[in-house]
Every structure is written in structure tokens, then in C-alpha cells.
Design a protein that fits this description.
The protein has one domain. Helix content is 59%, strand content 8%. It has eight helices and six strands, in the order αααββααββαβααβ. A two-stranded antiparallel ribbon has the order 1-2. A two-stranded antiparallel ribbon has the order 3-4. Strands 5-6 form a two-stranded antiparallel ribbon.
Length: 217
């Protein structure tokens, strides 16, 4: 799951007094951002194993601080506190924290058993990465439905062009993730690419959402 993680961000951003769309895009992928950062010094670890799943060659064998349920909830709480200090809005903080927490539950559907509750076995995952005909439509439905919900619940004074630019970037990013070349082995290029992609998408989301307001339709 990649752009499907942004579905809760779009839904939360359509609520009154929510955090900004860019902030919520960061929230949606915060644990993966943390994972990419922790890969660099080797605190968490992965390797490339071609064929480990039908859709993803990543063996995510050690990520107790980001992809355990406990770890994700800690990231969610910390991010919620940061958003509260930045906005002084309880609704924004709670919404952002829930978007962070949603990441683990969405991952649970697609990952093979590599997620944990608190960093130790049992390892969990329903394994939809081995079933592309289910996983791919599910991702499209998640992000498409959330995008349309956000589009209908918000408006901008000069139209929706920025939002459609964001949609195009999301489609492009997902196409590269699904059909682009895969790294043959782990290298620092992997976390660097992850961080670049998340920064680009969050920055574009912030730009797209900057002039949008909740509408009554």
C-alpha cells in the first residue's frame, strides 16, 4: 500500500478545524518516513528478496519502532502533540494522530507477516501483496473514494486545478511503485527515494490544500 495511505488524510482534511492537507499527508506516511530515517543508521532493517511477495520484493524483517502497533501509536501521540502546539486546535491534533495510527491498520491488510504488536512475535499481516487483483483495486478504491469525498466537501476560489495536479502526481507515483524497476539489492538509494517521494507528495498536498475551504453542498 502506497497512495492508499493518503485516503485517511483526505478524509480528515475535509473536517472542520482539521490540520492542513500537507500536514495530514505527512501524518499518513509518518511511520514510513521514520522507517526510512532509521534505515540509514541500521536501527531498523530490510533486504531485497525477489519473489518474497507478488508485488513487493522488500523483506521488512526488522522494524519494531515504526511498524509495531505500539510504536505506531507512540508516533501518533507525538505527532498529535506537535500539531496541537502548532495549531492550538484539539480537533486538528486528534485527527492528525488518527491518520498516523491508520497506517498500521492499512499495512496489516497488505503486508505479509512482518508487523508486530510491540516489536516482538507474533508477526502479523494478511498478505494482500500476494494477491494483486485484490490489492490494486483496493488501493484505487481507497484513494479514489477519499479524493472525491475531499473534492466534494471543499472548494477553492479559483477552481480545482491544484487538486487535480495532486491527483496526477499520486497516480504517477503509484504507477512507478507498481510498474517501475525494482532495486536489485538494498542500498541507501531506497530510503533516500522514499523520503524524496514523501516530501514531494506532502509539499504538493500543502500547495493543493492551501486555498481550499470546507463547503456546504
Amino acid at each position: 500500500m502506497f497512495i492508499g495511505h493518503f485516503a485517511p488524510a483526505l478524509i480528515a482534511a475535509a473536517r472542520p478545524r482539521a490540520a492542513g492537507l500537507g500536514t495530514l499527508f505527512v501524518a499518513a506516511q509518518l511511520v514510513d518516513i521514520g522507517f526510512a530515517v532509521l534505515l540509514v543508521p541500521g536501527i531498523e532493517a530490510m533486504q531485497i528478496v525477489p519473489g518474497i511477495t507478488a508485488m513487493n520484493p522488500m523483506d521488512l524483517h526488522h522494524m519494531p519502532y515504526t511498524h509495531s502497533l505500539l510504536g505506531t501509536l507512540v508516533w501518533a501521540a507525538l505527532f498529535g502533540v506537535i500539531v496541537w502546539f502548532a495549531t492550538k486546535r484539539k480537533e486538528a491534533a486528534i485527527g492528525a494522530a488518527l491518520v498516523v495510527a491508520s497506517h498500521w491498520f492499512i499495512d496489516l491488510a497488505v503486508h505479509i507477516p512482518d508487523l508486530t504488536l510491540y516489536g516482538a512475535p507474533p508477526k502479523l499481516g494478511l498478505g494482500l501483496w500476494n494477491h494483486p487483483l485484490i490489492a490494486m483495486p483496493l488501493e484505487v478504491l481507497l484513494i479514489g473514494g477519499a479524493f472525491l469525498y475531499y473534492l466534494r466537501r471543499t472548494e477553492a476560489p479559483h477552481g480545482d486545478r491544484r487538486l487535480w495536479v495532486l491527483a496526477g502526481l499520486l497516480v504517477f507515483a503509484q504507477a512507478v511503485d507498481w510498474f517501475g524497476p525494482k532495486e536489485p539489492a538494498y542500498s541507501l538509494a531506497i530510503p533516500a527515494t522514499m523520503l524524496f517521494a514523501y516530501a514531494l507528495l506532502a509539499g504538493t498536498a500543502a500547495w493543493a490544500g492551501a486555498n481550499r475551504r470546507i463547503s456546504i453542498r
